Structure formats: structure tokens, C-alpha cells
Amino acid sequence: MRKDEDTGRSGGRADKTAGVMAAAVIVAAAVVFLTGCGAGGDSFPADRSAIYIAKDGGLYTVLCGAYDAAKDYYSEEELTARVEEEVAAYNAEHLADAWQTEAKPAGRTDARQMEEAVSVERVRLGGGTASIVLRYSDAENLIRFTEASQDTDNHAEKLSVTMVGEGLPDVPGEDEAWTDAKRNDPVTPEQIRRRTDLHLVAVTGPVTVQAEKRILYYSGAVSLLDKYTAQVADGDAYIVFK
Fold first, then answer.
1. Burial class (CB in 10 A: 0-12, 13-18, 19+), 195
2. 43 and 139 together in one domain
């Protein structure tokens, strides 16, 4: 890393870097991220930032982009260390808040036993592509962390993941248009409601959502990029997947 880029947290250019992620996380590896395109499916996107939702409802963010591989001051080890530092700082703050409120886990006396709000799943840097995959304990922490870390690519205003039987009755506007993703035909909420084994994602804000399993139905500000991936524009969107 170039000496003039390691400017610390309290000022300087590193703290002013554009919102790809918190400057303390990303400046060591790829200050300027470029756009890319990735494939959907049962693996994390290789070169596209997205909120990734596993078939068990697990929540991840994938932050990725291109950098100049000809430069020799990019370091995967340093990027990993900075990501872990940022995540650890967030978790420490979250832990302190939780243990001062009723959110303290019942029957637990050791704060270290609490599930981490955010964890580092993977950091990769090589061949001109950098990617950071983080896992979240719940949607609230995904929203809070992406806002705090300036990850504008993956920051949603609202986000929830439930089963259809739990979440669909709460979707406003029962007569809102739904689309069968495979046939590109209209479908009624009643037809979807019978599929209680399906996952329902409710999201507000301009993000990309990729599901581990195929998207079956959607409603609202959604454009499908492939059978697993939806681009959400400003506004409310609902996505149903297996």
C-alpha cells in the first residue's frame, strides 16, 4: 500500500473515499471500484455487489469490483485485516448496546456467547477482482452495518426475509400486481399464499438481491437480471423464491 493512502480514521483522504465501504476497510485494496457483472445461482456473485439470501434464510452482502492488478500496492492480507477490524468494531458496539437493553440473551451470563451481528465470510483479492463477503445475524444488522460502513451498493432502507405464510399477509395492497418469474404472467396473491414453503423477501431501496434458489414471483420495483437475481429500484419490492 502507498504510504500516502494510509491516513487513518481521523482525517485525510482515506476517510473521504467514496462509499464503496468504510474507508478504513477498503482503501488498502481498491479505492476505486468499477462495475462488473456476475452470474446467479447457488454461489456468491463473483464480480457483482449484491445482498445474497441463502436457502435457509441466511443473509450476506457481497461487495466486489475491479482494481488495477498492475499496481503492486494492493494486499489481500491487509484488506482482510481492515475488514475484520471494521467488523470487530461494529460487533463490539452492538454487543455493548445489546447487554444494556432487554435484548440480552435469556439465561446467558457471558457476553462472548452472543452471536456476532456481522462476521467475515470471505475476502478475496487477485487478478484484478476484489470481493468481500459478510454474513449478518439478521436484517436489522445488515441495514445498520451497510449504512455505517458506507456500503451504498448493498444498503436497503428496509429488509425482511420470512416464509410466505408469515409475511405475505402483511404485504400492503393485496391487489398489487404480482408476476410469475418463469412465465412472465400475472399471478394473484392468493395463488402465492398457498405456497407456504416459499421464502418472501420484502425490500425497500435500490439494491441487487440474489437468492440461492430460483425466484418464482415478484412484485413492485423489480427487474430480473437472471433467474436468481433481482435489481430493485427505489420503492418497495417483494420477491418470492424457493
1. middle
2. yes
Q: For residues 51 and 207, is the Cβ–Cβ distance under 8 A? A: yes
Which residue blocks in 27-173 are alpha helix, DSSP H?
76-98, 139-148, 164-167
Tens digit of each residue's pLDDT (9 = 90 or more) over 173-232: 655 689 999 999 999 888 898 888 999 999 999 999 999 999 999 999 899 999 999 999
The predicted model scores a pTM of 0.78
CA angle 170, 172, 176 (to 5 degrees): 125
Same domain, 145 and 200: no
CA–CA dist 174, 154 (Å, integer): 28
How many structural domains comprise the chain?
2
Residues 135 and 187 in one domain: no
* Same domain flag for 142 and 62: yes
Q: Over range 84-90, report the average pLDDT.
A: 95
Claim to verify: residue 162 and residue 235 sit in the same structural domain: yes
Answer yes or no: do 39 and 133 share one domain.
Answer: yes
Pairing relationship of beta strands 215-224 and 199-204 according to DSSP bridges: unpaired
Do 120 and 79 have their domain in common? yes
Of the candidates 146, 132, 36, 152, the one whose C-alpha atom is nearest the C-alpha of residue 79 is 132
Say if CB 26 and CB 5 are below 8 A apart. no
Q: Which residue has the cell 425466484?
A: 215
